[in-house]
Design brief:
Elements: E1 2-9, H1 16-28, E2 40-50, H2 70-81, E3 87-91, H3 94-97, E4 103-109, H4 116-129, E5 140-148, H5 153-164, E6 170-176, H6 177-180, H7 206-216
Antiparallel strand pairs: 1-2, 1-3, 2-5, 4-5, 4-6
């Protein structure tokens, strides 16, 4: 089983990362509101790992111990990754159930790409647990984006390709609100299955993309 710790900005607070990104999209995209009806954008940080990674070793040192339940994983997430005032800590897909969105986009690293944030998260987790994760297991990170607006799947994919992900090192998964239903819970947690798609037709011209890249320092 895969556990997901999802750190969201609490709904009563503004999401500065999401607001900044939304403002930049509106500023640079040379499209009317009808062509790009993106009304709101909020973000979340996702930390994923296998349940077996957290199991205590049995008396014989054979990994026969038990993993952590959802409440314990949530407590770890709240302690290690969240600000109790600003953030809402969810686990195993709860963030999708508790958020208002029309489309959910999750961006994660491609296999084989170094996940530096994941390494730091793993070090924090291991220090808190007082033991290393099981051999061969790691913490993997992703960024989730909750989009609201009357967008088509093609528009969402284009936004993800051009604004949210670097195709050289990252992969994208897109879910509509309807598709997210029934994909959460301790036994049916949604786990990202990313597929590479051809780049969609650009919604921005090349000079504008160069300007954005310069702003990002890339």
């Amino acid at each position: 089983m895969i556990h997901r710790i999802e750190i969201l900005t609490a709904p009563q607070h503004a999401d500065p990362v999401g607001q900044s990104l939304l403002a930049r999209i509106r500023r640079h995209a040379k499209l009317s509101a009808a062509d790009l009806p993106l009304d709101d954008l909020r973000t979340c940080a996702v930390y994923s790992f296998a349940d077996q990674a957290l199991q205590d070793k049995g008396a014989a040192g054979n990994g026969g111990g038990r993993g952590l339940d959802a409440a314990a994983v949530r407590a770890l997430g709240a302690e290690l990754f969240a600000d109790p005032v600003l953030h809402l800590t969810c686990v195993d897909g709860e963030g999708l159930e508790r958020s208002a969105f029309d489309w959910y986009v999750e961006v994660s690293f491609r296999p084989g790409v170094t996940d530096n944030v994941g390494r730091t998260a793993q070090e924090s987790l291991e220090q808190r647990l007082g033991r290393p994760l099981a051999a061969g297991h790691h913490v993997h990170t992703a960024t989730g984006y909750f989009l609201r607006g009357r967008l088509s799947r093609a528009q969402v994919q284009a936004l993800a390709d051009e604004w949210l992900a670097n195709e050289l090192i990252q992969q994208v998964s897109v879910l509509s609100r309807a598709e997210s239903k029934g994909r959460v819970g301790s036994n049916g947690v949604w786990w990202v299955r990313c597929r590479w798609r051809p780049w969609s037709r650009s919604v921005l011209d090349r000079p504008t993309l160069r300007t954005i890249a310069a702003e990002d320092g890339r």
